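Section 3.1: Structural characterization of target chains.
Under the original work plan, the team committed to producing a structural model for every single-chain target entering the pipeline before any wet-lab resources were allocated. The record below documents one such target. The sequence was received from the expression subgroup and is listed exactly as submitted; it comprises 227 residues.
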Amino acid sequence: MKRIVVLTGAGISAESGLQTFRGSDGLWEGYAIEDVATPEAWQRNPVLVQRFYNERRRSVLEAQPNAAHLALAKLQEAFDVQIITQNIDDLHERAGSRHVLHLHGLITRSQSSKFPWLTYPLEGTEIRMGELCENGSQLRPHVVFFGEPVPMLEPAAEICATADYFAVIGTTLLVYPAASLVDYVPAGVPRYVIDPQIPDVRDHSFIRIQEPATTGVLKMIDDLFNG
């Protein structure tokens, strides 16, 4: 079975009603990134950071997978679909995708603030101050803050190196280190990029589908079977 590696970004979740992390005004849901999504923000005001991500988690749990998520899950009937997502929501999993690697963490889990390898499934929508990991440190969202290492980058690169097909959906390919994953895809592998605003991809061999994910993924699938 041929393997297609799919790198997804905020654009695919935006069609389920979830805000992209940074709007045109530089804010995320009305908050400055520096105030809610950095290690310094956590040290300075953990209550605010916790509240911010509790709000985001509620939004994620209210959202539903859209046609793009569902189409990628159905594609597993014919391909070994490996999804690498920059998104912290669980919409791919809820759509039925079996192999999902979260580069930036998963908001429906918590992690120790001192021992980041300790992560836990989260019941409900909130992590409360005073909730501790097994080693006694405060639990925080299981997300990679800006400025923190991306521990899943190396496994993601290894997956990209095994691709028979590669697709980029709903991401600008301008945010590093995630954008560097393109460099690990073997030469000659067919590559797709799907977005209403096609990013200035360095590799001009990309097949460009300038549409939202919900319609663009269906066109890519048609091309995979009939192209």
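The chain has a mean pLDDT of 92.
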